[in-house]
Design goal:
The structure is a homodimer of 183-residue chains.
Chain A lengths: L11 H11 L1 H4 L3 H13 L3 E2 H8 L3 H14 L2 E5 L6 E5 L3 H31 L9 H25 L6 H9 L9
Antiparallel strand pairs in A: 1-3, 2-3
Helix pairs in contact in A: 1-3, 3-5, 4-5, 6-7
The structure holds a DNA duplex (30 and 30 nucleotides).
DNA sequence: CTGGTCTTTCAGAACTTTTTGAAAGCAGAA
DNA sequence: TTCTGCTTTCAAAAAGTTCTGAAAGACCAG
């Protein structure tokens, strides 16, 4: 497999990359980052910064940033080839593992800080016997906190590093499934 | 409860609104939209466009757009008061229902289109006996498609309009839980 | 050390999204 | 009909984000 790949714009690989790129928002990352990930995933083999730059036609800086961010998210790993100074990158190949990393990261980055803020609000609410704050406000706040705690806990269980993941998902679908699709 | 509410910036209501606003990205909506939703949710009572404008200090246009979008997402409803020409808005009060609406919408808007693109790529790949496309590429594509289908199906089951939702979530947590938190 | 190869950083440019405010639209009352 | 009170729309402005490319940094080999 040659180092500098040249894909046609309508090559299946490229079409996959584009489709995946459009999804970036769902995973909470930028389009380019998603494309870089898609390219690494579908290619399977380790690619270096220049491969990524050339294939996606992006700048060196952008490639470097995106790759590092993917490594931070834990869904891309760094690899070295003997006798080659360059650094190579490989995407995790198990989709379920990818999913787990993403869920874990997003909970850490987004749900946890929100919960922290809400705890603060609640704690300031309780002791002061708050002049005139509707008690129902407190109840709604609690309801939201409970829900988010449940989400975080579920996320950990469902997608956590040790989680049952796939099997659990499958079994969920299995029990009392109604007739689905034909496709 | 007066029509034009005036909250202190550090009022618990406002603090909730701000915390929730910062979360917008997670739900795939803009900060302002999230704040409008937070305000309606925590207030509990129906508010009109002017209430929202004044409380959040945003323009009429923005308030109007955000409210309509929330109605489209199905997590805010329109209400009319007898003898009042104004339109009022109330947020769904059951957090689990809100969650379900959001999951359903996002799958519809984001996962389904992606799946559609991937099906196209796969279908173009199969018949042509594609000159030189690595068979592993096809395998990886299939793996991704399978995963996304599972997600969509799970989403429907778990968060769908008829779904078991909360109970299911609770039971998931219950079985083989390891010692969690104290807090 | 010096020179070469590769990686990272960062200020500004390009692009995207969000917000505004004024104008147009709509509906009921008189 | 016209007036009035309210809602929606939309073009332009502001704010926010992502990308580029050049320069600086790191590291190794000789």
């Amino acid at each position: 497999m040659p180092q500098a790949e040249r894909f046609q714009a309508d090559d299946p690989t490229m079409r996959f990359v584009e489709a995946w790129g459009r999804m970036g928002s769902v995973w909470g990352i930028s389009r380019t980052m998603a494309e870089v990930h898609a390219l690494l995933y579908i290619t399977g083999a380790p690619l270096c910064t220049d491969d990524v730059m050339e294939t996606l036609e992006i700048s060196r800086g952008n490639a470097s940033m995106s790759l590092r961010a993917l490594v931070d998210w834990g869904i891309v790993g760094r690899v070295h080839k003997r006798g080659d100074r360059k650094e190579y990158f490989v995407a995790e190949q198990d989709v379920w593992t990818v999913f787990r990393s993403i869920v874990r990261e997003r909970i850490k980055r987004e749900v946890d800080p929100l919960l922290a803020s809400l705890y603060e609000v609640r704690d300031d609410l309780a002791p002061a016997a708050e002049r005139g704050t509707d008690p129902e406000v407190k109840a709604r706040l609690e309801a939201m906190i409970d829900f988010l705690e449940l989400c975080a806990a579920l996320g950990e269980r469902f997608a956590g590093p040790t989680g049952p993941g796939l099997q659990l998902a499958a079994s969920l679908l299995a029990r009392n499934h109604r007739s689905k699709h034909a496709d």
